Amino acid sequence: MTYQLVATMAAGLEALTAKELQQMGYQTRTENGKVYFEGDIKDIAATNVWLRTADRIKIVLGQFKVLTFDDLFEAVKALPWDEFLPLDAAFPVAGRSVRSKLHSEPDVQSITKKAIVEKLSTVYHRRGRLPETGATYPLEVSILKDVATLTIDTTGPSLFKRGYRVAKGEAPLKENFAAALVLLTNWHNDLPFYDPTTGSGTIAIEAAMIGRNIAPGLHRNFAFEQFALTPSDLLAQVRDEAAAQENDAQLDIMGADINQEMVEIANNNAHQAGVLKQVRFKQLAVKDYKPESERGVIVSNPPYGKRLNDIQVARQLYKEMGEVYRPMTGWSKYILTSDLTFENSFGQKATKRRKLYNGTLRTDYFQYWAQRPKH
Predict the structure, then answer these.
(1) Which residues have C-beta within 8 Å of that of residue 109, sequence separation ≥ 6?
(2) Which of 152, 5, 153, 150 is nearest to 76 (CA)?
(3) Tens digits of per-residue pLDDT, 230-287?
(4) Is the pLDDT of residue 315 over 70?
(5) Which residues, including other chains, have CB under 8 Å from residue 250's CB and lie 6 or more apart?
(6) Are 337 and 154 in contact (CB under 8 A)?
(7) How far apart are CA 354 and CA 337, in angstroms?
(8) Per residue, what are the HEC states of 51-95?
């Protein structure tokens, strides 16, 4: 069976996820926060295991215009629920409605649920309640500008939960967002990579996984494993195929933090992720860094200084960054911050700025590209 599938991701990362899917051989269509593609159950497994920047993979069951609750009920009931949900399926329904006539989310949710129950009861010749004692199929009905989309989530806990983070710092980056920061640079695995404000090590770890071509979802579980339509050995097969694609590139990746406790946490996480041999973490202040090579890439998510007294401290750090990194003309530097006046403190205009949302927080990714060596 070929399904209409959709990958969801944070706003601003659509092009990255679309590129990842295209590199895996899929044709894509992009909307805000969504990239649509087609595939079978094996593709569902492969994209869950491989996508670095997405949040979830969902099966799209139907899309239709709804102006009344009757429209919604009839359209939902008409969908082939029995092809997906066995008699004992547990199917919690989450509802969302934005800029639509049917704006009460609890009502949208309960009417969708009722329509599915009625359909399954008819098909399975059941009276009364359905058991809902089997595998869970997380459903969502989402209405945007009067168009309802019904999906089954195949992922379970979001894809950023790779499973390697034993301990976090105080404001950790999500793993898929960290991977996106690396993929937005010009880094490739024969260049040195440096994260000067590494915290719990997420950016450096994601870079090591990219450098070694380690699938991010290799060691976690997914909702689709329990689905009736999933062959029992499918995930093991996809994991074996993914593991066979790892390379043994020698990587030069370093993460530094001023706080020794964070360095220990980062080492712990790198060990869990299986990249401890590829990444060095050390206790080092931004101002004390001395590059060992002419070329490389710096990616940093420094403290943003959201509280007033912290902003002075943050800007002092940005100024130190500028003093240390500006002379490193063979290096590309990429710095993420919600302080949109960052360039003033750093002392140089960025080559390019990219707007990204870290959670709900507007941040800019300030990019300083390396100068080409003159021949």
Answers:
(1) 93, 94, 95, 141
(2) 150
(3) 999 999 999 999 999 999 999 999 999 999 999 999 999 999 999 999 999 999 999 9
(4) yes
(5) none
(6) no
(7) 11
(8) CCCCCEEEEEEEEEECCCHHHHHHHHHCCCHHHCCCCCCECCEEE
Tokens linked to 164: 């390697």
User: How far apart are alpha carbons 141 and 107 in whole angstroms?
Assistant: 11
C-alpha–C-alpha distance, residues 61 and 112, integer Å: 13
Residue 36 CB: number of other CB atoms within 10 A?
Answer: 17
Task: Point out which residues pair with 139 in neighbouring strands.
Answer: 93, 152
- What average pLDDT score do residues 360-366 get? 94
Q: Is 12 helix (H, G, I), strand (E, B) or coil?
A: coil
Residues whose CB falls within 8 Å of the CB of residue 48, separated by 6 or more in sequence, listed in order? 57, 154, 155, 159, 217, 222, 224
Which amino acid, one-letter code, is at 350? A
pLDDT band at residue 370 under the 50/70/90 scheme: very high
In this structure, which long-range contacts are made by residues 31-38, counting pairs with CB atoms below 8 Å and at least 24 apart in sequence?
33/8, 33/9, 34/6, 34/7, 34/8, 34/9, 35/6, 35/7, 35/9, 36/4, 36/5, 36/6, 36/60, 37/5, 37/6, 37/7, 38/2, 38/3, 38/4, 38/5
Q: What is the pLDDT of residue 128?
A: 83
pLDDT band for 172, please (50, 70, 90 cuts). confident
Residue type for position 51: L
